Predict the structure.
Amino acid sequence: MEFQNIKVVKFGGTSLADAKQLLKAKAIIEADPARRYVVPSAPGKRFAGDIKVTDMLYECYRLAAEGEDFSKEFNQIKERYDTIIAELGIDLDLSEDYEKIQGAFKYHAGSDYAASRGEYLNGKIMAKLLGYDFLDAAKVIKFYDNGTFDAEKTNIILSDRLTRHERAVIPGFYGSMPNGTIKTFARGGSDVTGSIVARASSAAIYENWTDVSGFLMADPRLVKDPCAIDTITYQELRELSYMGAGELHEDSIFPVRFAGIPINIRNTNDPEARGTMIVPTTESFDSERVITGVAGKKGFSVLNIEKDKMNAEIGFGRKVLEAIEEEGVTFEHLPSGIDTMSVVISSDLTKKQRKRIINSISAECEPDKICFEDGLALVAVVGRGMVSAKGTAARVFKAIANADINIRMIDQGSSEISIIVGINEKDFEKAINAIYDEFIKR
Ligand code: ASP
C-alpha cells in the first residue's frame, strides 16, 4: 500500500471526554477519507472541576502501590468508559481488559503502565466506533532501556506496520521498552505520538484537534480577545514557545519538523475554523499585521558589568560566561556595549550563587562595576514579516514609549524574526497590550 495524502489526526482529552465529543471526532474523521490514522488521548475533563481519566489512573495506582484498597477508584474509571460505550451504543465489552489491568495494578506494574491504560482503552473504543484497526502503541512506539525515546527504531517498525493497515487507531502517550515494560512520554504526550505517526506515514499533514481554534497572537489572560494566528513557521513557534506561549511540547514538534510536515491546530468544537497552520517555511505574511505574535515572561535578572576599554580586552566575555557556567546556570541574552556587558539570567539563582559569580568575575576580570539587578521582564515580538517590513522595530519602541514604559534592554537575534525587549516587571502587561494594539487594529 502506498502512503498518499495521508492525514494523521490526534484528538486531545477534552475532544474525547464523553460520547458526545467522540461523535464529533468521528464526524470530523469521516468528513475526509484522507484521515486514516487516528491518535486519541484519554478522556479529559467534561466540565470545570472534572477529573481527567489519566489523573484518576495515577491516583488509583498510587493506592495500589501502597497496598491499599483501590476498588472504588477503579470502578469510577470503569464507569467513565462504560458510560461512553453505552451512550455510543457500540458492541464492545472491556471487562477482560479491566480485569487484566486490575491484576497488573495488584502486581505493581508501574505508574507509567497505569497511566497509559487511559489511552489504551479509549483507543479500543475509537477503533470500534470508526471500524478502524486497533494498533497497540506498545508494539510500535519504542523506548530505550534507560527510558528515552528510540526515534529511529520506532520509525522503522511503525512505518512498516502502517503499510499493513489502511486505517488504524494508535493510542497516544505510551510505548514500550525492550523488556516490554510500558513507558509513557511526559504529560500531554499524545501530541508526541501523533507527530511520530505523521512522520512514519509520511503524512501530508498532522492535524492536532483540541478545544481552541488555533494559537492566539497573545496570551488571553493579558490581552482581551486576541486574534488567532493563521500561519506560523516552526522557527517562529519556537521563539514564542520559549516565552511561554503555544501549547505544543518541543518533543511533539521535532518528528514532523524533521520530516517537513505541517501541523494544523484545529478545534473539535468548531470544525469549520481553519485553526493555525504550523509550517516548515513560508515567505508570505500578513502585510497588515507584520507580526505573528507577542509573548513574554517575568522573573529575569541582569548581571551588569562595566569596565573601561572592555572591548580591547581579549577573553573578557569568556571569563564572564565561565563564571556563570561554573554555577550550572544558562544565560538567556547577552546584550553588550563598548565598555559594558549584560548577562540576562533567570532570577532563581541563590544568594550564594550570585556571590560566587560576582567574586569569580571580580577576580578574573577586575571590572569597574558589577552588580545584579532583579525585576526584569522580557517581551518577544515575533514575526517573519519583520525581515522585509521596514520600520517594525521603530513601531515596537514607539508603542512602548507611548505607554510611558522604560526599555531596559533590546536584543534582536540574527534571524531577524524577533525583537526582544527587557522592561520592568510592573510594566509587563501594559507593554504586551501596547505592542498588540500597535500592530492589530481592533
Ligand atoms: N492523557 C495524558 C495526559 O493527560 C496524555 C495526553 O492527553 O496527551 O497527560
Remarks:
- The chain has 14 helices and 15 strands.
- The radius of gyration is 25 Å.
- The chain has a mean pLDDT of 94.
